[in-house]
Each structure stands twice: as structure tokens, then as C-alpha cells.
Specification:
Layout (H helix, E strand, L loop, with lengths): L1 H8 L6 H11 L21 H18 L12 H13 L13 E3 L8 E12 L5 E10 L4 E3 L1 H12 L2 E2 L1 H16 L4 E9 H4 L10 E6 L6 H12 L6
Length: 239
């Protein structure tokens, strides 16, 4: 792992041959499948500062290959801006240290009905083309003796959205995290989103959207599921 350690410690641009050898080595590492984001075991061997330096260098190479003039005052700092954005903002959910800390409160008021939080903003990026996924998530749960601060639900959604994603995995990750945090299976998640990889490239269909859902516990019952869908559709019956 000497190559790996040298690359991690270096702040200089990586020699292409050295970097290819690095990729060959880490390519032997197992990749998590299924509901987990496919991260290498050594995903965090580089600290954020080094990641930014290296992404900056490589993005500068991409821009140069595209023929852009990096001496232009509008472009010269773009590689650093992109690198900082990747690490500190739009892909910050890759790092487990950024997972929101959740505090539960005792359900002293014995609220035993469905709690729904809808229209939570989703801003993510497609892992196939690295273009935006924009939409909203709707979440519901039944208390198992504890309740969660409402803003923490938004933070959980945002944390998992800030990764290269596919919508199916995003939906399941939100549901799995809520079940673990709330210590209950009675959780529902529905995500509606538009994918820029569909609307601005390829088929170029800006009118289409994708809906995914993850129902657990009581929400496997049709009546509870329909109640949830009624709430988020806005068609609530008045009594």
C-alpha cells in the first residue's frame, strides 16, 4: 500500500502511471452492494483538503482537454470551485462524519396516529451522468414510544441525497435510516423527482418524472398506505 499512502500524503498532481497503479490496487477492494452506496474500503484515506486539491487538478485537466482557456478570469478558479463544491456540498453525504446527529424525545403526549412530513426538498446527483436529480420526498411514521425533531427528518433526507445516487437506493436508504433511528418498522417514504439525465440529454424529455416508494410495518396495510397517500396528495377529507 506504499503507492496508496504516497498519494494520500502528496499535495502535488498525481503521476498518471502512479495513479493508474493506485486504481488497480483499490480495484481489488470489495464494493458494497444493494442498499449501500458503493464505496471502497479506503474511501476516506484522503482528508477533505487533499481530495479538493486532487479534484481541482483533475478538473483543470478536463477543462483544458475541452479547449477552455484557464487563464481567463472567469474560468481560472473554476476547478477549485468545482472541487470544493463536490467535497463540501453536493457529495458531502458520502462521508459518515456528516450524518446528522438525531435526538429522540419521549412521546409523553402518547400521540399514536400517523405523522407525515411532506414536500421535503431533494437535490441529488445521478451516479450515471453526474447531473442533478431534483424533486421532493414524503415521509411518515408511527411512534414506537419516541418522536424525532421534525427538522431531523429533512436532514436525513438531505444527507443521503448528497451522494451520487439512483432514486431507488436513495428511497431505501432514507427508510432504513428512519427505521433504525426511530426503532420502528412503521415507516413510509415516497420520492418524486425529475432526472436531468432524462430531461437534458439522451431522450431529452423534460416533462417526465420518477416515483419510488418504500413501505414497512403498518404501511404494508392498504388502509394505512392509502391514508398516507391521501395526506401527501393534498386531498384530505374534511369532517
Amino acid at each position: 500500500m506504499n503507492i496508496q499512502n504516497n498519494i494520500a500524503k502528496s499535495t502535488d498532481p498525481v503521476n498518471p502511471e502512479q495513479f493508474n497503479e493506485f486504481l488497480r490496487i483499490i480495484g481489488d477492494h470489495p464494493v458494497e452492494k444493494g442498499k449501500n452506496t458503493p464505496l471502497r474500503e479506503d474511501a476516506f484515506i484522503l482528508d477533505d483538503e487533499l481530495k479538493i486539491k486532487k479534484i481541482e487538478w483533475h478538473f483543470k485537466e478536463i477543462m483544458a482537454i475541452l479547449g477552455l482557456d484557464l487563464t481567463d478570469d472567469s474560468l481560472k478558479n473554476t476547478p477549485l470551485r468545482v472541487a470544493s463544491m463536490y467535497v463540501n456540498e453536493i457529495f458531502s453525504g458520502l462521508n459518515p462524519k456528516n450524518k446528522p446527529q438525531v435526538t429522540l424525545f419521549e412521546n409523553k403526549y402518547t400521540y399514536n396516529q400517523m405523522l407525515v412530513e411532506k414536500d421535503i426538498r431533494v437535490n441529488s446527483y445521478c451516479e450515471h451522468h453526474f447531473v442533478p436529480i431534483i424533486g421532493k420526498a414524503h415521509v411518515a411514521y408511527f411512534s414506537n414510544g419516541h418522536v424525532i425533531g421534525l427538522s431531523k427528518i429533512n436532514r436525513i433526507v438531505d444527507h443521503f441525497a448528497k451522494r451520487p445516487q439512483v432514486q431507488e437506493r436513495l428511497t431505501e436508504q432514507i427508510a432504513e435510516e428512519l427505521m433504525q433511528v426511530l426503532k420502528t418498522d412503521n415507516v413510509a417514504v415516497l420520492v418524486e423527482a425529475e432526472h436531468m439525465c432524462v430531461s437534458i440529454r439522451g431522450i431529452k424529455d423534460p416533462g417526465s418524472s420518477t416515483t419510488t416508494s418504500s413501505y414497512h410495518g403498518k404501511f404494508l396495510d392498504r388502509d394505512f398506505r392509502n391514508e398516507f397517500l391521501t395526506y401527501i396528495s393534498g386531498n384530505m377529507k374534511r369532517t
